[in-house]
C-alpha cells in the first residue's frame, strides 16, 4: 500500500466546518499540508453508498481525481441503537436541506420516544484516495449514550446529545482536544497515520 511521505500536500475532501476544524488540529502535528475542497472550489459529490466506507471512498476519489492530489475524506454519523442504527449514513440528511443539526437532534429524540435504551455511537470512516484511483479506508468508533436535553456549546452536529462511555459530560461540553483524544474521528485518524503516512 502506498503511503504519504512527510511534507505531502493533500486535499481535505469535506465541506463540514466542524470536521475541518478537528482535522486541522489533528493534522497540526504531522508534516502534511492540507487544502480544503472548498478552497479549491471542488463540487460535493452525491453520497450514494449505504455504508460509511463507501461514501468516504466516493468523496475522496472525486476530490483526488478533480485536483490531481491525494485526498482524505471523512464519512461519519450517529448510530442510535433503539433506532436500529439510524440516522447512520443519513445523519447529515436528517437535518433537512440546510443540514440544521437542531432539527436533526430533535428528530432523533422524537423517534426514540419513551425507550429506555439510550445506547449510541459515532462512527467515522476516513478514506485516502490517490488520483489514479487507489484507495485505503480506516474506521473509528466511539460508544456512549444519548442525552436529552442537549448540553454544551462546543463541537458540532450531534455532539450536544452524546455522552461518551465513562464520561459525565457530552462531547459538546468538552474542549476539542479532549474530544479528539477519544472520538471516532480521533481514533480513525490515529489509524490513518499508522497505515497511510510514512513515519
Ligand atoms: O460530507 P462532508 O462534506 O464531509 O460534510 P457532511 O456534514 O455532509 O458530513 P457527512 O456526510 O459525513 O455526514 C456526517 C453527519 O454526522 C454528523 N457528525 C459527524 N461527526 C460528528 C461529530 O464528531 N460530532 C457530531 N456530529 C457528527 C455531522 O453533523 C453530519 O450531520
Ligand atoms: Mg456529506
Automatic annotation (TrEMBL):
<keyword id="KW-0547">Nucleotide-binding</keyword>
<feature type="binding site">
    <location>
        <position position="75"/>
    </location>
    <ligand>
        <name>Mg(2+)</name>
    </ligand>
</feature>
<feature type="binding site">
    <location>
        <position position="46"/>
    </location>
    <ligand>
        <name>Mg(2+)</name>
    </ligand>
</feature>
<keyword id="KW-0479">Metal-binding</keyword>
<comment type="function">
    <text>Pyrophosphatase that catalyzes the hydrolysis of nucleoside triphosphates to their monophosphate derivatives, with a high preference for the non-canonical purine nucleotides XTP (xanthosine triphosphate), dITP (deoxyinosine triphosphate) and ITP. Seems to function as a house-cleaning enzyme that removes non-canonical purine nucleotides from the nucleotide pool, thus preventing their incorporation into DNA/RNA and avoiding chromosomal lesions.</text>
</comment>
<keyword id="KW-0378">Hydrolase</keyword>
<comment type="subunit">
    <text>Homodimer.</text>
</comment>
<feature type="binding site">
    <location>
        <begin position="14"/>
        <end position="19"/>
    </location>
    <ligand>
        <name>substrate</name>
    </ligand>
</feature>
<protein>
    <recommendedName>
        <fullName>dITP/XTP pyrophosphatase</fullName>
        <ecNumber>3.6.1.66</ecNumber>
    </recommendedName>
</protein>
<dbReference type="InterPro" id="IPR020922">
    <property type="entry name" value="dITP/XTP_pyrophosphatase"/>
</dbReference>
<dbReference type="Pfam" id="PF01725">
    <property type="entry name" value="Ham1p_like"/>
</dbReference>
<dbReference type="InterPro" id="IPR002637">
    <property type="entry name" value="RdgB/HAM1"/>
</dbReference>
<keyword id="KW-0546">Nucleotide metabolism</keyword>
<keyword id="KW-0460">Magnesium</keyword>
<dbReference type="InterPro" id="IPR029001">
    <property type="entry name" value="ITPase-like_fam"/>
</dbReference>
<feature type="binding site">
    <location>
        <position position="179"/>
    </location>
    <ligand>
        <name>substrate</name>
    </ligand>
</feature>
<feature type="active site" description="Proton acceptor">
    <location>
        <position position="75"/>
    </location>
</feature>
<feature type="binding site">
    <location>
        <begin position="184"/>
        <end position="185"/>
    </location>
    <ligand>
        <name>substrate</name>
    </ligand>
</feature>
<feature type="binding site">
    <location>
        <begin position="156"/>
        <end position="159"/>
    </location>
    <ligand>
        <name>substrate</name>
    </ligand>
</feature>
<comment type="similarity">
    <text>Belongs to the HAM1 NTPase family.</text>
</comment>
<feature type="binding site">
    <location>
        <position position="76"/>
    </location>
    <ligand>
        <name>substrate</name>
    </ligand>
</feature>
